[in-house]
Amino acid sequence: MSFRWYVAQTYPSVEAVAERRLNRQLFATHLPCRTTRVPRRGKIVERLNPCFPGYLFVLLDVAGEAWKSACYTRGILRLLPISERPLPVATAEVLELHQAELDGALVSGIVTPGSRLRVYRGALARQVIECLAVDDEKGLVKALWDCFGRKVETVVPLDAVTLVG
């Protein structure tokens, strides 16, 4: 038996349901989630959202026939890529994502002025910025971005940044 990780595409917004159904069939799964702080009724609340909406990881042995039942689980569209046999994902990548979750690297909202942040979506994706101020109510970070040697003040959503370790 040779178990490897594979990516399963799910129907929109049913990642957790598909994961539970796969777990009931005794398939090991991993649904990487990040914690985001959002304003709700005048308070800041933490919500878990999938890192990759519409996708989750499944541990399968494709040498036999048992893995095909994962494809027919309700909530699962297909295993990627779309072909006769899916392609595996490196185990190290899945473990790194899981470790990042445990270490709190996938948490947004614990940002303080002066901290260095990495933007992971939007126009400034993959850029490192320096936090000037945090507006928890609006969910925004006012920051300095080093653009060609010049400091530019910018505003980015709080849920689009993580702390640089």
Write the layout of secondary structure elements.
Elements: E1 4-10, H1 15-24, E2 28-30, E3 33-40, E4 43-50, E5 55-60, H2 68-71, E6 76-79, H3 91-103, E7 116-119, E8 128-135, E9 140-147, E10 150-157, E11 161-163
Antiparallel strand pairs: 1-5, 1-6, 2-5, 3-4, 7-8, 7-11, 8-9, 9-10
Q: Give the low-confidence spans.
A: none
- Average of pLDDT: 87
The fold-level CATH name of the largest domain is Alpha-Beta Plaits
Summarize the amount of helix as a percent range: 10-25%
**How many strands?**
11
Topology as a string of helices (H) and strands (E): EHEEEEHEHEEEEE
Distance between the termini: 38 Å
CATH class of the largest domain: Alpha Beta
Overview of the structural elements:
This protein has a five-stranded antiparallel β-sheet with strand order 10-9-8-7-11, with no helix packed on it. It has a four-stranded antiparallel β-sheet with strand order 2-5-1-6, sandwiched between helices. It has three helices and eleven strands. The protein is α+β, with helices and mostly antiparallel strands and 165 residues long. 16% of the residues lie in helices and 41% in strands. It is elongated. It folds into two domains: 4-103, NusG, N-terminal domain (Alpha-Beta Plaits); 116-163, Roll (SH3 type barrels). A hairpin with a 4-residue loop joins strand 8 and strand 9. The model has no long low-confidence stretch (mean pLDDT 87).
